[in-house]
């Protein structure tokens, strides 16, 4: 019996010693809905599927700014990155351009678009693991004051990433490039009049304390990314590589429904805390999707002309994007 117990202990110790420890950067605060429901969910899925053989430690934007995270992952300082493409448009426009594509993870794979994006990032030293959508719809504005005219953002300074520049300008606003973590203090001090954001996380950031309104209708769609350092990925055994990719694909098919439900819950909670819906007038509302999609494609083309033109061609050939009439 003692010998059997010793063998069990040795086996468990050896398994623990062989566990691969990976380090992930997230572009979002560790308490945010996106980190919690996407990055953390992936970490849990991987650790459970691998029975602890693959472990992932998470580091937030307090360690590396969201706008500077691509390089330390592509160079191998960190193994994994959870981010949005808009945070690295200084390097490539491909990641951000995905926000002009309809949410349908199966179509993204079957059309060849997923493989196209993967090959593009391979040249940057990264392996694509997953493109999780953040809901079936993508964006909203949080405003200090309600919309009362058209264009709805006339004269307002609006926080955003590069993704939102075209639509904010098209609605009369002035874009201000700023990370999510700086929005609360900027709204509080009157540096900005509102913020463009996804459909989750306003409550996590506490923006309801410094802004009174969120806009309807919502518009567009948005995706985040899970990347891995290519050399680190290639150094793993084939089973581990397959596991990471399989869990990434499973994640892609889960996140839209999860975040849609969370958005509904958050809007209800924000109303209880005093926020109100404010509506774009019809003339603005009818062009929200066209403004954001066309702006996103143009942003991508400006940064990476050939790659994003090819990407758009794939999307249009497979009826995966809206075109301006």
From TrEMBL:
PANTHER family linked: EXTRACYTOPLASMIC SOLUTE RECEPTOR PROTEIN (PTHR33376:SF5), PTHR33376
Record bears the keyword Signal: yes
Segment forming the signal sequence: 1-19
Key word Signal present: yes
InterPro entries: DctP_fam, TRAP_DctP_sf
Protein name: C4-dicarboxylate ABC transporter substrate-binding protein
Pfam families (UniProt xref): DctP (PF03480)
């Amino acid at each position: 019996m003692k010998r059997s117990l010793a063998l069990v202990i040795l086996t468990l110790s050896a398994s623990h010693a062989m566990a691969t420890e990976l380090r992930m950067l997230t572009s979002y605060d560790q308490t945010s809905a996106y980190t919690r429901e996407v990055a953390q969910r992936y970490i849990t899925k991987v650790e459970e599927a691998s029975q602890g053989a693959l472990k992932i430690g998470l580091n937030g934007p307090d360690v590396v700014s969201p706008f500077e995270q691509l390089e330390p992952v592509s160079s191998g300082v960190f193994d994994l990155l959870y981010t949005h493409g808009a945070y690295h448009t200084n390097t490539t426009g491909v990641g951000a351009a995905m926000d002009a594509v309809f949410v349908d993870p199966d179509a993204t794979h079957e059309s060849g678009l997923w493989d196209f994006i993967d090959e593009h990032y391979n040249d940057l030293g990264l392996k694509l693991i997953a493109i999780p959508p953040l809901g079936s719809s993508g964006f909203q504005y949080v405003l200090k004051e309600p919309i009362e005219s058209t264009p709805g953002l006339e004269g307002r300074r609006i926080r955003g990433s590069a993704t939102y520049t075209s639509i904010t300008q098209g609605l009369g606003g002035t874009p201000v490039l700023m990370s999510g973590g700086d929005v609360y203090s900027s709204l509080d001090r009157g540096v900005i009049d509102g913020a463009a954001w996804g459909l989750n996380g306003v409550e996590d950031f506490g923006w309801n304390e410094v802004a009174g309104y969120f806009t309807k209708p919502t518009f567009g769609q948005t995706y985040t990314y899970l990347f891995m350092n290519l050399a680190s990925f290639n150094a793993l055994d084939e089973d581990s590589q397959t596991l990471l990719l399989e869990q990434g694909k499973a994640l892609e098919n889960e996140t839209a429904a999860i975040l849609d439900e969370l958005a509904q819950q958050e809007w209800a909670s924000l109303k209880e805390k005093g926020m109100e819906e404010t509506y774009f007038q019809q003339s603005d509302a009818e062009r929200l999707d066209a403004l954001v999609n066309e702006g996103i494609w143009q942003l991508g083309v400006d940064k990476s002309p050939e790659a994003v033109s090819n990407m758009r061609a794939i999307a249009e050939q497979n009826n995966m994007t809206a075109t301006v009439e």
